[in-house]
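FW: tagging you since you asked about this chain on Friday. Here's the raw sequence from the shared folder, copied in full. Didn't touch anything.
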Amino acid sequence: MYRNNWIKKEGEPMNINHAEHPVQLLIACDNEEKQSQIDLKLFVVRKEKEADHYYRSKVITLAEEVTSWLKDQLIRSFKSFQQPEGDESKFAVSDYHLEVQKNEQLAKLVIQEQHSTLNARKNGLLHALTETDQSIEERDTHFQIIRLDIEQHKVYCCFYRKPKVGTKKRRLAIKDSNVFHFVSDDLLELGGKIDFFIFNNEIYISNLLSFENMFDYRDHINEARDYNLHQIVNLPFFAAEESNKDIFEQHCKQHVYSRSLAQLSADNIAALEDNFEERCDELKLIRKRLPRNAQKAEEYRKKYAAIWELYSFLDLEHYKIKYEPDQKPTTLIHFFADKIKQSFLTKNFSIAVDIDPLENDS
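HL: got it, structure written out here
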């Protein structure tokens, strides 16, 4: 069916737009004969945070017509992630970002050493799919996983979806011989858009919040936030008593700031330390040049509106942060994250706003 001269080792990266990538091989299955050579298994999964294993799964037996329909649906779903590029269609992929999901693009996260928690949970999930527990009730599950065996590769497609069950106020009924009867068993909703899929150590994400719910990625976000905060408040410019670094750190641990702080890289923090005094000197000059004329001064402040609030947080003479208990850390976080940008066209300053910002409630 396929060529075998381009088989990568487990964990080795493979470009998703390469013709031999397993997803591309699946998309190329344009008839029943080709699709019949792909093995598909459906699992329902629940999280067991307090148990020995983080996940438990149950394999679902499917009729042949359901399996065939699911393969068609998955091919359509994968194709929906592609965009025309010349005579071809290609996947548009960007790096995973904690604060933003770009329109019409898959977010790619490569699991590396620093993702120890995520790696453990991914491995725990795959283990649960191998060691299934058929005693699980479908109604108690939270996710569906479809495992595709394509040649020597496995691709895992995840759907954040609970079974449809009746309640005291709402019941499901089906028609049989012109008579509607209550549904006594749970119903599984199948198909639809893939929330994310896993291949080797790469996760391609369509719905970031579903991905984060599956792996409780909030734990990683909070760990990264706390680590970055510790690095920042121990920089020299937080050494003054009026910096109130403990209060600043406490305020920053509020939920709404977690993603911005977790997204900071080591390069961000190093640049902050290296360039802090130089930025303070520039801010001195900007304030010194404030026109005396009231109308011109107002226009001048508008031009520098994005940075003007920084003056409330900086002791420019002593190159220190000053932070009061009644203040909010938003302005400083924008500064630390290098989100204050100057327009090349107008020379005005503004806060960089990402496309499709994520909701802070995950």
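FW: The chain has two domains: 22-164+190-216, 220-351.
HL: agreed, and The mean pLDDT is 83.
FW: great, closing this out.
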